[in-house]
Structures are given as C-alpha cells and as structure tokens.
Amino acid sequence: MVPTPSHMPEVHRFDEFMGEALYGASGFYVRGGRPAARGGDFATSPELGTLFARCIAGYLDRTWDELGRPDPFVVVESGAGRGTLCRDVLGHVAACRDAVRYVMVERVDSQRDDALARIADAGESERVVAVPDLPAGPLVGVVLANELLDNLPFRLLDRSQTGWLEVHVAPEGSAEVLQEAPADAAAMAATMAPDAAPGARVPLQLKAAVWVRRALRSLERGRLLTFDYGVRRTAELAQRPQSEWLRTYRSQRRGHDPLDDPGSADITCDVAFDQLPPGATLSTQAEWLAAAGIDSMTADARALWQRKRSQPTAEALAARTLLDEAAALTDPDGMGAFWVGEWRVG
Which H or E element spans position 68? Predict the structure, then answer.
C-alpha cells in the first residue's frame, strides 16, 4: 500500500537525494571522491595511462580537418575532474595543436583548482580555461564527456501490480518511500519499458537528456562524443535487477545500497541511450578505439614484448604495461563494452 501524502514524512525524489549525495555540502565529490588507476575510488579510461588520450587526440586532429580546420577549434570536456584527460590530450594533438582552445567543465571548485594547477605544470595554461558549467556557444569544435552521463542524477520508477510508482527517499537516506508516479513520468516509463513486470525498476534519465540537448545546442558545427556504460534500450534495464545497473563505488570497490551512508560513495547508472536525443552513432569502446588506431599505437610494444618476454628488460616491461593498458581499455567484459555515442552537428 502506498502511503498518502498527509501521512508521510518529508521525502525527496531519488534524483534529488542522489544530487545531494554526490554534490551537496557533504557530497561524495565535494568531500574528495575521485577517479584514479591506483588509490582512487574508481578507475576511468584516462587514468589508466595515456593511450585513451592519444586516441582522443587523433580523433580531434581528424575532426578539425573534416570541419575545415577552424581556428579557434574549441574542445569542451565536461566532467573534467582533475584535468588528466585535458593534460594528456594536449600532449598528443598534432595537426590541430595551434588552433585548440580547451575548456574544462567541472562543477566542483576544488577539482577545478587542482585541474588548473596540473595544466599549469604541463605548460598548457594559455590554451585552457576551467568553468563550472557548459559554455552556451555557438562554437565550432568538439564536446567530450567520459563517464559523465551515468553520474547525472536520475529519477527511479518501480512497476507495481497496478501501475508505476516513483522512488523517494526519507530524510537522511534512511529508507525508500514509494509514491504514485506523476502521469508524465509514468507515461515515459510505460513507453520505454512497455513489458515491464511487477517489481521491475527503470531510471528516468532526464538530466542526461537535457545535458545532451544543451551540448548539441552549443555547437554551431562539430561533434559531441560521449563514453559511458549503458544499454541501447530502457527495456533492457527493466529485465535486470536494479543492483546490476545502479552501482556505487568507493576505494575501487563495488557497493550495493545507494542509501547506505549518503556522501560516502559514488552513485552511477547504466545510460539508456533511447532516452537521449536521437541521431547518435553508437559503437562499443573497443570498436571505437580500434578505429582510432589503438592497435597501431601498441604494435611496437607487442613486438618488443614477444622478443623479450622470456628475459624481460626494463624496456620490455614498460611495453608489457602498455599492452595491459590497451587490454583494459578494450576488455569486452569491462571498459571495452562501454558505449560511445557520436552526434554530428552541421
């Protein structure tokens, strides 16, 4: 039975709870949650090494040429964190280097400051700015987002025997409270997951859709490129337990209940691409990196390791590290299964 509003304590929709848990005064990112290959709370592609950035840099060079070699060529990275991807991309762009103006978008003040300091240490301050929100445009260039959309707060709906309920959270994240979903939210869930069985849950990723629309509107001509774990259709999530697609991470360990100790862990969700604006070309990260030339980037390392593996030298061990990085980026059971979405404007 769903409690009537007059008998309920003050509650917040799940997306409101998630936003506060991640970005509020005591939120996970405000308290210092961060990605890193070692010692951080979760690993991301740019933090494994420089291979991912080298592939992005090659993509930027090709896109700059396709767009007619504009100057300035604006690259906007949303969710830039501590600036790792920006630093490494600028270290590897070639053809478009003189035209690039890089905008790091990071809403957490302390991470923005850290990022600018790292960029200054790399000698790239003149071509980089850091801002808390997407620039309005119009700009010619590329908007990038690596594992951003999965982090944007989403609403959470639950299929009951009679219709759709919406998950709310009691004060201080103490418990879930189910309320009848508003008509528009229920209609969206019914459209996206028409065969959902009682007990099924789905996210409504409205903030992710709004972010994509804003990014596309900011481009006069260019590309929007996103990397995220996800699914093509929301209905796929309705067929799986919530614990498989709604995740928490702390110290690189997977958690379980997102209500457990709010602010202590990252909260993420598989991105349902059918909820985003249409027009994207989708590929897996493994496919995208292969097309970007990751195999040729690691060919010398592969040959060196084959020659020296029985008696490895320091150089051969460095080659092995590079090959391990490539394997992690393209792992079909891990990062290689992420979805890459590319929208083209103009």
Answer: none
E strand or H helix that includes residue 276: none
Q: What's this model's pTM, rounded to 2 decimal places?
A: 0.89
For the segment 164-200, what is each residue's pLDDT rounded down to a tens digit? Answer: 999 999 986 678 999 999 999 999 999 999 999 999 9
DSSP string, 25-44: TT-TTTTT--B-SSSSSB--
Q: Which two tokens stand for residue 290?
A: 């292969």
Specify whether the CB–CB gap between 342 and 280 falls below 8 A.
Answer: yes
Are the C-beta atoms of 217 and 158 separated by less than 8 Å? Answer: no
Sequence-distant (≥ 6) Cβ neighbours of residue 280 within 8 angstroms: 273, 341, 342, 343
Over residues 155-167, mean pLDDT: 96
Residue 38: how many other CB atoms lie within 10 Å = 8
What is the distance between the alpha carbons of residues 154 and 237, in angstroms, rounded to a whole number?
14
Nearest partner of 56 among 85, 18, 17, judged by Cα: 85
Beta strands in the chain (DSSP E): 12-13, 73-78, 100-105, 128-131, 139-146, 155-159, 164-169, 176-180, 201-204, 219-228, 230-231, 246-250, 253-254, 266-269, 271-272, 281-284, 339-345
Are the CB atoms for 86 and 92 separated by under 8 Å?
no
User: Residues 249, 253, 254, CA angle at the centre, nearest 5°?
Assistant: 60
State the pairing for strand pair 219-228/339-345: antiparallel
**Residue 107, CB half-sphere, CA atoms under 13 Å: how many?**
16
